[in-house]
Structures are given as structure tokens and as C-alpha cells.
């Protein structure tokens, strides 16, 4: 079970670290954290992750996971990385994304004609790549699974763990990270947020996406 | 607003990265990722985080956060780190932990006589340090806030964000990471897990805690 996480500068750490905490504990899992160059990866929250492998060192994966970034255009003009994503996708059982990672799958040409999701503030942008935006936590389209913003990667990874290793294994992984969420407020999606806060954050995020 | 995250070898990445994604975006936040030595930190899932500062470089913090580890005894015998935790605690507005990070607070002598929580499988161990174990997602005891296992750090960070910056700011942070959890199963706490899976995982985790 070979699992490749794409790492890149300015990615969002939690998009990768949430699913990583689950998927790396699947029976027989071997995880590669892959980037253009191995070494430090500066995320958009200031903390520094580490890539272990260069793109050229990884030519196959059972699972591919693409995290998102506050600036959703980060990888749009990186032909080498997009070509790697297409090549790995041709070998995967599951190709997945978290948050605006789906816009990177889109830029790689892998979402044409598919239903997909992304961070709520970027949902319309899926149309640029010929995808049909679905405002859901997780969207499955054949072997392509896209998740909504940041924290949705945890739900996606548990869903994927059950498909791969069965529900009992997935439930043990859930129990292991004590994932029994109790958010102190119920404001985590556009339909639940206060309209004024939603507008304020949307304006700020759209500016970041386009910087 | 100075926020210090203690990093250490074999810590659990998500314990820190979940709250980090929220707290680093508080207005005016300055985050220090602090370890015995600055540089790469190998976490218990194989991925490598990075500490920016040595313990000796950080002498004060408004918020201190101690993540946990699969091996809960990791820092018990590190007098230098425990002394640093005590010294920083003396300066904090909030001293916090995620998962078995509370056992480190306990080893530092900071939980004597206090209610506290930790990962469900380690709950009894709080008594070793004179704390009263509470099986809750988040436990507040004066300025000490302890959270349950791994993913509970996200709930704790949002609770803390509201105390510091008000509920509207905290709700925007929740919306920013689209934290509207939809776990695919309801098995994330001991009271909800299948008894056979609970026993199996408990046996495995207790062995890890004591290794």
C-alpha cells in the first residue's frame, strides 16, 4: 500500500497532516512525502514540514493525496508537477484531494466532466477545469475523491480507510485519534455561519486565492 | 500574543498541527515552535516537523501548548524540558495540552490537585501526577486547559480562540478551516466504540505508552 502525499511551498499543513495521521496507520502502509525537491516545505501557517522524496523518485502510488493552499493558484503554472500528478494518477487506485488541492487536480486535467468539491470559498473555481462543483464534505467520482476545506481531510481519510481496510480498521483509527468532534460553535460551513462573518471571510479568502 | 508550541522527538504531529492552524491566525499572534534543539523533529507517524527555537531562546509565552505522543513517557525523564515548562507556565495566561501532553504537564508538577483530561487510553495515568482524571473533550482548571486525544486539540484551540479574541473571531477561524465535521462512523470515543475494537486498541496503546 504505497501512499504519496504531494508537498509544496505555501501548502496548508493540516490538509496533509490530518489524513496522514490516519492513512499512515493503515496495515502495510508505506508513505512518501513528495515534492519538487526533498527538504523543508514552508506551509502557509509558517510551520515547516519536510518532503522525503523528489517527484522523479516516485513513479507509482496506490493512493495519491493533494493538499490545498491559501493561494489556490500556487501550482497552476508548474508543468513538471502537474505532469507528475497525471502520471501517478494513471497508476492509482484512489486519487484524492483536500481543500483547494482539487483545483490542482483540475489544473492537471483530471477533473474534466467529474463532480468534485473544494474549500467552500473556492467552489465556483472548479468550473474553470470543467468539473461540476458539489457543496459536500466529500465527493466521490470513480476513483477520484475530493474533500471540502482543510479539516474535511480527516473525514475523507476515514472514509477511504474503510474502503481499503474495512470499517473495523477505520473505526479503530478513528478511536486512536479520539475523533469524536465537539466544536464549541456550529459555524464551520457557509450554511451555518453568520452572514456578516461569511462575507468578511469570503472577501479575504478570494483576495488570497488570487494573489 | 506570544504562543509557544513545545516540539519533541516522537510527538504526534496532529496534536500540534491542528491547534497551530487555528491559533497562528489569531490577531497579533506570534508563534514559536520550540524544542531542546532547533531543527527537524521526527514525529510518531514518520513525518518530520521543524522546531525554530531552542528552549533557552524562549523565556515567556501568553499561551503554552504541549502536544502528546504515542509513547506517553517520552519526556518524563527530561529534567531540562520539564524545568522549561514550569518556567514558561509561570508567565502564561493559558497553559494547554493535547492528548498525552497533559501527562507531560503532570510530570512537570503542574497538575497537582487539578481536574484534567488526556487520551482516553491514558486517563488513569493522570493520577500518577496527582491530577483528577475527567473523561471529557476539554477540561478547564484555572488557566490550565487540557484536551482529550489528538483531534481534540482542534476543539480546544477554537474554545481558546473565543476566550482570547471573542466568539466572532473564533467562528471565522472555524469557517476558515471548514470545521463542520462529518465523521463517517460514530466510533471516536470509548463510550461509542465497539467493545471488541476498544479492548484491542487499548491493549495496543497501553503497550506503546509503556515501551
Structure description:
The structure is a homodimer of 211-residue chains. With 211 residues, the first copy, chain A, is α/β, with parallel strands linked by helices. Chain A is built from six helices and eleven strands. Chain A has a seven-stranded mixed beta sheet with strand order 5-2-1-6-7-11-10, with helices on both faces. A two-stranded antiparallel sheet of chain A has the order 3-4. In chain A, strand 6, helix 2 (79-89) and strand 7 (94-97) form a beta-alpha-beta unit. The mean pLDDT of chain A is 96. At the A-B interface, helix 1, strand 4, helix 4, helix 5 and helix 6 of A face helix 1, strand 4, helix 4, helix 5 and helix 6 of B.
Biggest interface between protein chains, with counts per chain?
A: A-B, 64 and 64 residues
Our count of domains of chain A comes out at 1
* Structural classification of chain A: alpha/beta
The radius of gyration over CA of chain A amounts to 16 Å
Describe the sheet with the most strands of chain A: 7 strands, mixed
Tell me the name of the CATH class of chain A: Alpha Beta
Overall pLDDT metric of chain A: 96
What order do the strands of the largest sheet of chain A run in, or round the barrel if closed?
A: 5-2-1-6-7-11-10
Strand fraction of chain A equals 15-25%
Amino- and carboxy-terminal Cα gap of chain A:
37 Å
CATH fold-type name of chain A = Rossmann fold
Give the SSE string of chain A: EHEEEEEHEHEEEEHHH
